[in-house]
Amino acid sequence: MVLFVTLAFVSCSDDDDNGNVMDPQTQTIADFVADNADYSSLLAALDRAGLVSTLDGTTDFTVFAPNNAAFDAFLAANNFASLDEVPVDLLTNVLLNHVVSGTVLSTQLNTGYITTLGVAINGSNLSMFVDTSSGVTLNGQSSVATADVDVDNGVIHAVDAVIGLPNVVTFATADATFSTLVTALTRSDQPDFVGILSTPDGTSPAPFTVFAPTNDAFGDLLTELGANSLDDIDTATLTATLNNHVIAESNVRSTDLTDGPVTTLGGDITISATNGTITDTNDRVSNIIVVDVQGINGVIHAIDKVILPTL
After folding, report:
1. How many domains in the chain?
2. Pairing mode, if any, of strands 285-295 and 298-303?
3. Rg of the chain (C-alpha set)
4. CATH number for the domain including 118?
5. Cα 67 from Cα 42, distance rounded (Å)
6. Domain ranges, residue 288
7. CB-based contacts of 220: which residues, under 8 Å, 6+ apart?
8. For each of the chain's 311 residues, which pLDDT tens digit applies?
9. CB atoms near residue 49 (< 10 Å)
10. Phi/psi of residue 177, nearest 5 degrees
């Protein structure tokens, strides 16, 4: 009799008043955002972009969630009076740039690149640079304030700033691997490379394909040239060298590379897609060591040797 009563009680507790079996209570990403007043701007943005249902389903996502203060700063920085003034397609892409497929816990994040659901104009998904050297920083713009908020369809990491759509300059400045390249690009006697490489996609000379030499590549160059620092390289040579690393009006991903000559802003180089190498006019060979760092206005491939003009 005791067993019968116990079973009957358990059975009834799983039924609603109409005798239907009830699902256990769940909390999705969308539920969490809706239930927290500090994310009301994020909820409004998701609603305007039509993404609430996406984050309320059973597919797992990792969301880097900006709070209300982060959205206020984003709107002010971009001269929008309110979320309603942000074009829907732009707002949608910015929000998708905060979302990664699958569940990625903070312990699974390492310094390097991950892929978001944000999309470049060529249809490729945007990259995001994660720096874990001191906490977790994203694209050099936003830091994780609270990590690993567990929900039924993934995980949420609260961030302190909206993560803007990255261009090729974003990655060069965020990734310390390219700090010497940034120093060269911003030297006072050089053209406005930062302005040029920040050109929005759809506006000439964007998009860009950038073969970005690492710090070690520049160190080897100085040894090769018998120079003590970048300051020992004259203006014209440095300009020609930097131009040799940029293909204009083309977003060439690794799968699009072909064997043969390619024209850069500084002249022709020869690519071997088969070997993953670039040969300059001095027969010096660079290896492509990281591919397809995708920005909104172009793509970066890291290389291990600086490409020189004809010497």
Report:
1. 2
2. antiparallel
3. 25
4. 2.30.180.10
5. 7
6. 168-303
7. 305, 306
8. 343 333 333 444 444 455 444 445 689 999 999 999 999 999 999 999 999 999 999 999 999 999 999 999 999 999 999 999 999 999 999 999 999 999 999 999 999 999 999 999 889 999 999 999 999 999 999 999 999 999 999 999 999 999 999 999 999 999 999 999 999 999 999 999 999 999 999 899 999 999 999 999 999 999 999 999 999 999 999 999 999 999 999 999 999 999 999 999 999 999 999 999 999 999 999 999 999 999 999 999 999 999 999 98
9. 20
10. -60, -25
Q: How far from chain centre, in Å, is Cα 101?
A: 14
**Same domain flag for 178 and 253:** yes
Q: Phi/psi of residue 106, each to 5°?
A: -60, -30
The secondary structure element, H or E, covering residue 73 is helix 68-77
In a domain, 155, yes or no: yes
> Amino acid identity, residue 130?
V
Q: Are residues 132 and 230 in the same domain?
A: no
pTM of the model: 0.90
Beta strands in the chain (DSSP E): 61-66, 99-101, 112-119, 125-131, 137-138, 142-151, 154-159, 208-213, 246-248, 260-264, 267-272, 277-279, 285-295, 298-303
- Please check whether residues 191 and 296 belong to one and the same domain: yes
**b/e code 245-284 from CB counts within 10 Å (16+ = b):** bbbbebbbeeeebeeeebebbbeebebeeeebbbbbbeee
Domain finish residue from 135, 159, 183: 159
Give domain status of residue 6, yes or no: no
Tokens 């690009």 locate to: 185
Q: Is 298 left (phi over 0), alpha (psi -120 to 50) or beta?
A: left
Nearest to 190 by CA among 292, 96, 272, 265: 265
Based on the fold, state whether residues 149 and 173 are members of the same structural domain.
no
